[in-house]
Write a structure and sequence with these properties.
Blueprint lengths: L3 E4 L5 H7 L3 H12 L2 E2 H8 L1 H12 L3 E7 L5 E7 L3 E4 L5 H12 L2 H14 L5 E2 H8 L3 H10 L3 E4 L2 E4 L3
Parallel strand pairs: 1-5
Antiparallel strand pairs: 2-4, 3-4, 6-8, 7-8
Helix pairs in contact: 1-5, 1-8, 2-4, 3-4, 5-8, 7-8
Length: 165
């Protein structure tokens, strides 16, 4: 089945750009785009970092999962790319798109500091995104891009929550 991811908001570009920002992630994504693969198969071919890439794709909702029985008759989670194509139709002021691209290309070390800061602000019930944006002195668009990049944070309505698998 062909599924198309429609990108209508600039911050939605961040997961797509981050999904292929390294050779490893690109190769793992190509692997699950071609066929259903288990975490074990990905680990055998790409190592532990390949499994981390799968977890990233799952959080970003770029892969679908199903359970299948392994040769050892144990249930194993299998992964496949959810979308076969992307339709990008977003219009944004230059300052917003520059915020999004800045976040997508930010060095991991710099991003980790900001992600930790946001994660520490968010308690078990989550926190209103506007309050976090005000505290960090960033735009709503930049905050959304920061959260979209994170494997530890997620949006639910107007609240930011800690991501739980």
């Amino acid at each position: 089945m062909n599924r198309i991811k429609v990108v209508s908001e600039p911050a939605e570009l961040v997961p797509i750009l981050r999904a292929v920002d390294t050779v490893l992630k690109r190769d793992v994504f190509q692997e699950v785009l071609a066929n259903w693969r288990t975490a074990k198969e990905i680990e055998d071919k790409f190592g532990k970092d390949g499994v981390a890439a799968l977890q990233f794709f799952e959080k970003m909702k770029l892969v679908e999962t199903k359970w299948q029985t392994s040769a050892a008759m144990q249930p194993e989670k299998s992964y496949h790319a959810f979308y076969s194509s992307f339709h990008i139709n977003a219009t944004a002021p230059v300052h917003e798109i520059s915020d999004v691209l800045f976040v997508a290309m930010m060095a991991d070390k710099d991003y980790a500091k900001i992600e930790k800061q946001i994660h520490d602000m968010v308690d078990e019930e989550g926190k209103f995104a506007g309050d976090i944006a005000d505290t960090l002195k960033v735009s709503q668009t930049m905050l959304k891009a920061l959260v979209k990049r994170s494997t530890r944070l997620d949006f639910r309505g107007h609240r930011i929550l800690r991501y739980e698998e």
